[in-house]
TrEMBL record:
Gene3D superfamilies linked: Phosphoglycerate kinase, N-terminal domain
Record's protein name: Phosphoglycerate kinase
Keywords linked to the UniProt accession: ATP-binding, Cytoplasm, Glycolysis, Kinase, Nucleotide-binding, Transferase
Sites where the protein binds substrate: 27-29, 42, 65-68, 122, 162
EC numbers, comma separated: 2.7.2.3
Catalytic activity: (2R)-3-phosphoglycerate + ATP = (2R)-3-phospho-glyceroyl phosphate + ADP
Pathway(s) where this gene product acts: Carbohydrate degradation; glycolysis; pyruvate from D-glyceraldehyde 3-phosphate: step 2/5
InterPro entries: Phosphoglycerate_kinase, Phosphoglycerate_kinase_CS, Phosphoglycerate_kinase_N, Phosphoglycerate_kinase_sf
Broadest EC class assigned to this enzyme: transferase
């Protein structure tokens, strides 16, 4: 269990009774299409925390970010207010500023149960870049805004690996608590290292960002019994096993070779130290004139096609191993599941997890999106994470600045 306080503690704190103003950091960062924000699971998840606080009679003041300065998705949060409102039993008011007299006046006229969303935190120059909590706490943004509220709640687990003002500055100057998303994400994503399991622990690892997941494998060697590999990382491990895959076949792409150069030493070390824990694909799938075709790994003599999924035999093997497991974790897709012809590996692994009684966590935006795309029920999984970078940090044992700020002694 974590050592930070939660909303339960906030509700029990007689110095911060209902009707007080609570500043809540959420993560509503979402895809932007034609200038409009697109709905995603983050709105629904954070709405649970917001609704709970609103129902309890707090004045709920929201902070969130969208994109980065200079990027196409760096836009105002006005549209986010409308999307969030669809998940709440109350209106979401919006002000196009983050601190100052206008914000103070807007906060001052809120009523118990009201929800007010402030402008994109990254439009405030004090938010970026990353710095230590003391430095961020001393910014005009934090000092000014904290004077208008009574407590701070951080619900933005998916941004908790960032040391930005809205994430680490306020716990130094306000009584601070974890929201429900922060609480549940933290407990689920650290379970693989902290939870005791009676049987086998399986982790399916894939995706295109091999560097991230290789670090996960290296860190969790003592906690996971079997790693089931697919995607780019699976090909790189096959390459280390003298199978002629895991390299770019065109000078126009750079998906494999750079990551191989960066990680080959660690991959070989993992294969030496944890060989009995690594399960590699025994067949791979590729596109043959618009149709799915498969080839046995041991019959590959050179890489002349792009592999887009683990093969059917491998998918069945992985699914069987998961059905016998006591816990199953997923990080990264095992194939290009957006194309149904190459969703076999990802879907069969997820369906096997859903069919069993094992403890399960599915992490990473792409993989969790497959649950919705292929009509699986997310309630069949113990936890479907909305975090990306923070999930990786948790699995690799790296500290999360937002968590550390909540765990530190506050005022």
């Amino acid at each position: 269990m974590s050592s930070f306080d939660t909303i339960d503690t906030l509700n029990a704190d007689t110095d911060i009774a209902s009707e007080k103003r609570v500043l809540v950091r959420v993560d509503l960062n979402s895809p932007i299409s034609d200038g409009a924000v697109q709905d995603n699971r983050r709105f629904e998840r954070h709405a649970q925390t917001v609704q709970e606080l609103s129902d309890a009679g707090y004045h709920v003041i929201l902070l969130a970010h969208q994109g980065r300065p200079g990027d196409d998705d760096f836009v105002s949060l006005e549209g986010h207010a409308s999307v969030l409102e669809t998940y709440l039993d109350c209106d979401v008011k919006f002000i196009d500023d983050t601190y100052g007299s206008r914000v103070g006046e807007s906060i001052g006229v809120t009523e118990p149960g009201d929800v007010l969303l402030l402008e994109n935190t990254r439009m405030c120059e004090d938010e970026l870049p990353e710095a230590d909590p003391e430095t961020k706490a001393d910014t005009t943004f934090v000092q000014s805004l904290s004077g208008h509220v009574d407590a701070y709640v951080n619900d933005a687990y998916s941004a908790a690996h960032r040391s930005h003002a809205s994430l680490v500055g306020f716990p130094s100057v306000l009584p601070s608590y974890a929201g429900r998303v922060m609480e549940t994400e933290y407990e689920a994503n650290t379970a693989i290292a902290k939870k005791e399991f009676d049987g086998t622990v399986i982790m399916a690892v894939g995706g295109t960002k091999a560097t991230d997941v290789i670090d996960v494998i290296d860190n969790l060697g003592e906690s996971v019994d079997s790693f089931l590999l697919g995607g780019v990382v699976g090909e790189l491990f096959l390459r280390a096993s003298d199978i002629p895959v895991g390299f770019d076949i065109s000078s126009e792409t750079d998906r494999y070779d750079t990551q191989w150069e960066r990680n080959s030493e660690v991959i070989n070390s993992i294969l030496t130290d944890h060989a009995d824990q690594i399960t590699l694909a025994n067949d791979l799938a590729y596109d043959d004139a618009g149709e799915r075709a498969e080839v046995a790994v041991d019959s590959i003599t050179d890489k002349s096609v792009s592999f887009m999924d683990i093969g059917t035999a491998t998918a069945e093997l992985y699914a069987d191993m998961i059905r016998d497991a006591d816990a199953a974790f997923v990080k990264g897709a095992l194939g290009v599941f957006e194309n149904k012809d190459f969703a076999v590996g990802t879907v069969q692994v997820l369906e096997a997890i859903a069919e069993t009684e094992c403890f399960s966590v599915v992490g990473g935006g792409d993989t969790s999106r497959a649950i919705e795309m292929y009509d699986m029920n997310k309630t069949d999984f113990d936890h479907v994470s909305i975090a990306g970078g923070a999930y990786i940090r948790a699995l690799t044992g790296e500290p999360l600045a937002g968590i550390e700020a909540l765990e530190s002694e506050t005022v």
